[in-house]
């Protein structure tokens, strides 16, 4: 069946994880609470907290990423016998949000690929595990709304990949059938596993030297139907099938 639509993951797919987002939020908390510890100890403690909270949240079909990150902050501070006030936790969130929206690097071939697909009548959408306050500014600040038919956050769908709900929610917006859509992402745990579970074809983008963020509590349950090195590879893959 010809592909009539392409659903894209956001982070690691349209945007690369190769950039440095910084740690302004954590640094602000550390300064405010006067946490006396070496940077290496702080980094290690944050990694432990992130793994524990990530495994717990990873088992849920839906959650707000703001809650995940703030729970990670709370567990991190517990290890040092400290607590963040609601105001400080919100300041942490806003600084982290600003860092991602400002610094997450868009792939050089993102616009040209989306434009090429749209020019041939392919339905183009983003389906991302992210909260609205992250997704909306990333879309509009980078002018992606020029090429997209729509975009769906896990917050809007009340479902996080690999849960089936977010895929079906996006499909209902597009009016397309499962086999008419190619899902493109970087995560075997989220993007590929979720698509395969409902029978949607998938393509995985693999960037040499860049690792997909660790996913705790989830297993790899499927392999992609296709593998690509660059977004522009989709023009041959999708348009070749389409034509």
UniProtKB/TrEMBL annotation:
SUPFAM superfamilies attached to this UniProt entry: HAD-like (SSF56784)
Highest taxon of the lineage: Bacteria
Keywords of this entry: Hydrolase
Cited InterPro entries: HAD-like_sf, HAD-SF_hydro_IA, HAD_sf, PGP-like_dom2, S-2-haloacid_dehalogenase
Coiled-coil regions, chain positions: none
Single annotated GO MF: hydrolase activity
Name of the protein: HAD family hydrolase
């Amino acid at each position: 069946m010809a592909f009539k639509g392409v659903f894209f993951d956001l982070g690691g797919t349209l945007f690369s994880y190769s950039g440095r987002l910084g740690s302004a939020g954590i640094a602000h908390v550390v300064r405010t609470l006067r946490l006396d510890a070496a940077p290496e100890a702080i980094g290690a403690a944050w990694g432990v907290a992130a793994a524990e909270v990530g495994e717990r949240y990873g088992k849920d079909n839906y959650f707000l990423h703001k809650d995940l990150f703030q729970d990670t902050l709370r567990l991190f501070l517990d290890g040092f016998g400290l607590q963040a006030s609601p105001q400080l936790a919100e300041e942490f969130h806003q600084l982290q949000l600003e860092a991602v929206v400002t610094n997450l690097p868009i792939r050089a071939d993102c616009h040209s690929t989306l434009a090429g697909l749209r020019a041939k009548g392919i339905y183009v959408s983003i389906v991302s595990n992210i909260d609205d306050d992250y997704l909306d500014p990333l879309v509009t600040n980078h002018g992606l709304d020029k090429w997209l038919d729509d975009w769906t956050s896990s917050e809007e769908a009340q479902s996080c990949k690999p849960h089936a709900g977010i895929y079906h929610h996006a499909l209902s917006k597009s009016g397309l059938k499962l086999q008419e859509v190619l899902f493109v992402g970087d995560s075997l745990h989220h993007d590929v596993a979720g698509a395969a579970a409902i029978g949607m074809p998938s393509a995985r983008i693999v960037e040499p030297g860049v690792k997909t963020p660790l996913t705790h509590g989830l297993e790899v349950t499927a392999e992609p139907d296709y593998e690509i090195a660059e977004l522009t590879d989709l023009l041959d893959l999708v348009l070749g099938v389409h034509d």
